[in-house]
Structures are given as structure tokens and as C-alpha cells.
Amino acid sequence: MKEIKAIIKPFKLDNVLTELHKIEGLPGITVSDIRGFGKSKGKNAEETISEGLHELVPKTKIELVVVDEISDRIVDAIQQSAHTGNPGDGKIFVVDVEKVVKIRTNERGIKAI
């Protein structure tokens, strides 16, 4: 199993969700509004939020846990549908998941996804 986290520009969320829904076996997704900065520290961003002395850029975080077999398709779908070619497009992180437990049923592993 893999956990996939992607930080994208908020206006690309609909594009990303449209592409993800085309992938058979997509178990579910968590979406959060976040803010932060990358190497450019928000200097090139069209929208920044002042947090005291610091400028933060609004972003959207997508999180999924999926079976290994579809992880590359999901990463490709996110990369292609979130891409603008401009600074701040975001990042995708993929990590191995050791264990998943569904709280309601106590199912474990792939059945819990």
C-alpha cells in the first residue's frame, strides 16, 4: 500500500478530482485547504496571505492510501492535471504504508482502504 500526498494550486483541484475519478479502484480521498511556501517563499505567487512577517501561499493538499498497483496511475494523473508550468505547481509525495485499520469494523490491510 502507498500513501500519496499532493500539494497543488487550489484552482487545479477540480481538474485533479476529475482525472482521479477515472481511475478504477480509487478508494477515497481527503482534501484540505492549507498554506505554506516553497523555495520562492511566495514571492512569485499571485495570492499570498500575510502571517505576521511572513507571506504564505494558499494551497490544497490531497491525501490518499491506495494499493500499489494503482499508485503510479494516481501520481501521473495528479501530475498531469495539476501542472501549469509555473512556479508553485506543487509536489507529490509517495510513501509505503505499513498498516491500515478501519476504526468502525476493525478491518486491516487492503480491506481497510
Question: Which labels suit this protein?
Answer:
Alpha-Beta Plaits, 5 strands, 33% strand, globular
Task: Describe the structure in your own words.
GO terms for molecular function: ATP binding; enzyme regulator activity. One of its GO terms (biological process) is regulation of nitrogen utilization. This is Nitrogen regulatory protein p-ii. It comes from hydrocarbon metagenome. The chain has a domain at 2-33 and 68-112: Alpha-Beta Plaits. α1 (13-20) packs antiparallel against α2. The protein contains two helices and five strands. The radius of gyration is 16 Å and the shape is globular. The termini are close together. The chain is 20% helix and 33% strand. It is α+β, with helices and mostly antiparallel strands and 113 residues long. Strands 1, 2, 3, 4 and 5 form a five-stranded antiparallel beta sheet that branches.
